[in-house]
Amino acid sequence: DPSPTNFWSIQWWIYHPESEQRFLMDLIRQKMDAPDFLDYHPDSRSFVGVMEDWQSLSESLGFPITTWIVEQNAAQRFLLQYDHVRRWRALHGVDVVAHSTNRNKSDKDYGVETLAPHYRFGRVRLPWRNEGKIISMKLIDELTHYPHGRTDDCVMANWFRSEEHTS
Q: What is the pTM of this model?
């Protein structure tokens, strides 16, 4: 859930279809610029940024990320228009899917409320040791205060992932 003026929330989830379990691997919530997310350095001929770091790590762990879900406006402004992003997608064989936060956010059947059963029935696993606890608390705080919390970046990013697009 990128923002040009506020915090970004970037989450890496693994979905296990047989058990319907969702595992939060990492979460970043901070102010960023688009090049922090993904950029290309022509001098070194290398990609840099969170997307490259997480993609490379996921591949080395044997659970390669297959789909990146990005808020629609940000996808159009920061990602999909750039040639280096198209090259990066081809290099890693991944999809970048645009998701609209405004269209269904409040819809009972498709909106943010659809997250609740996954937590209620224990289908979400959050890291809880060391740094993992700090990461998880960012998400927990927003989820437990939504829609009246100070921010909802983590909630929106959590909502973006779905069974069809999570890996």
A: 0.86
